[in-house]
Amino acid sequence: MGYKILGFVVWKGAKWYLGHRVSRAKRFAAAGAVGVGVGALIVAANAKQRQTQ
User: Fold this and answer.
1) What torsion, rounded to 10 degrees, do the Cα atoms 1, 38, 31, 21 define?
2) At 53, is the pLDDT very low, low, confident or very high (cuts 50, 70, 90)?
């Protein structure tokens, strides 16, 4: 539960920072990069879990 709250706080903080410091195009690029990174982590975690079974 603690990680969920921490993730929420980090996500909101990043959105606030990007909203105030970065142009709209750069914001979309950063959000896309984060999305790709999260997707890659999920795929890697699934692959590792399958190896241990």
Assistant:
1) 60
2) low
